[in-house]
């Protein structure tokens, strides 16, 4: 490296060189253990070759640190050419396959060794561990890919385009500072579409792994980590298409609403521990009720899982349905925004009830950052509890309005039990 005036090696350089050699040794041991270094189909090399290759890359990294660029290029070029010639020699055999995994791993050892000699020890150590794991789990990875159908692969590619291409191109909004136009945020609306599609995909995967009767509750637990309202809307509409699965879908709704409670508590604890402490008496009763209902329902579902019907989804993402539900949610937000601007919502608790209808996370954020005093913390905690109760009422309306009869009975009764527990906690602790 520029500025070094002597030829001595310090401890950091020696450690980097040692890590570089150990990276090659670790990957080489895996290659030799898996049988790629011996026999008629032997590839580039085994433990000793990879160890020396790591040492070679480490020396190249040390040369780079000292600014000896020509020597660095020669050393790395020689290592890369050696790997390339080894692949050409192996691939030219009449009975050889074209698998270049070992040779690519050798090139990766060179790169990681250079980085290790540059001082990126944690990064290179982590990458090395991942590489060894991927090389070792070849059979499991190939088996997983073989189980992936065309529909899942297409859905994954579509979701990637939706999230990585479409979402960043949309304007964030809002369009205006007054009236319902404040509630129009195209990027946030598309994020809701992504959430609904992700819920559909998660439910699809969970059903394939655990069966329909356990898959929907698991999907509800996952959905509640992001938006319990969206999960409730999604499952309510789905109950009309799959009436035989009304019970698992209802359990999924209760699971999503139950996960909301510890999620709010954790967010509040991060933002303001005083508010989180004051919030516990309000959240504990509905959480206990929700955990009991979900646990009891999942145990019964597991006992009867053999009777589960099988459904084939045309598209795991169900994009059209996701867009429709997002538009319904957007219309609800516009209506609530219009009412708030037209008639107002005086008072902290009244505002919390209105805000809690659509965005419990925003309510938690605003109430947890009001202040640190005991009275302010108590007021903030009570406001969050009021918002959660209002949000439960909204979900109850979605269940009753959109679900089928069997789903309504079970989901609404569970939500009502959680709402009663919240109301009792507000009365008792407030």
Verbal overview:
The protein is 78% helix and 0% strand. The protein has 17 helices and no strands. The protein has helices at 11-33, 47-65, 69-91, 101-117, 121-136, 138-147, 150-169, 186-210, 212-224, 228-241, 246-271, 273-303, 319-343, 348-356, 360-368, 374-402, 405-429. Helix 9 (212-224) runs parallel beside helix 11 and helix 15 (360-368) runs antiparallel to helix 16. 42% of the residues are buried. The model is unreliable at 1-6 and 303-313 (pLDDT under 50).
Q: Identify the overall geometry.
A: elongated
Which whole number gives the mean pLDDT? 76
Strand coverage percent:
under 5%
Measured as a percent range, the helix fraction is over 70%
Write the layout of secondary structure elements.
Layout: H1 11-33, H2 47-65, H3 69-91, H4 101-117, H5 121-136, H6 138-147, H7 150-169, H8 186-210, H9 212-224, H10 228-241, H11 246-271, H12 273-303, H13 319-343, H14 348-356, H15 360-368, H16 374-402, H17 405-429
Index terms:
430 residues; mainly alpha; disordered N terminus
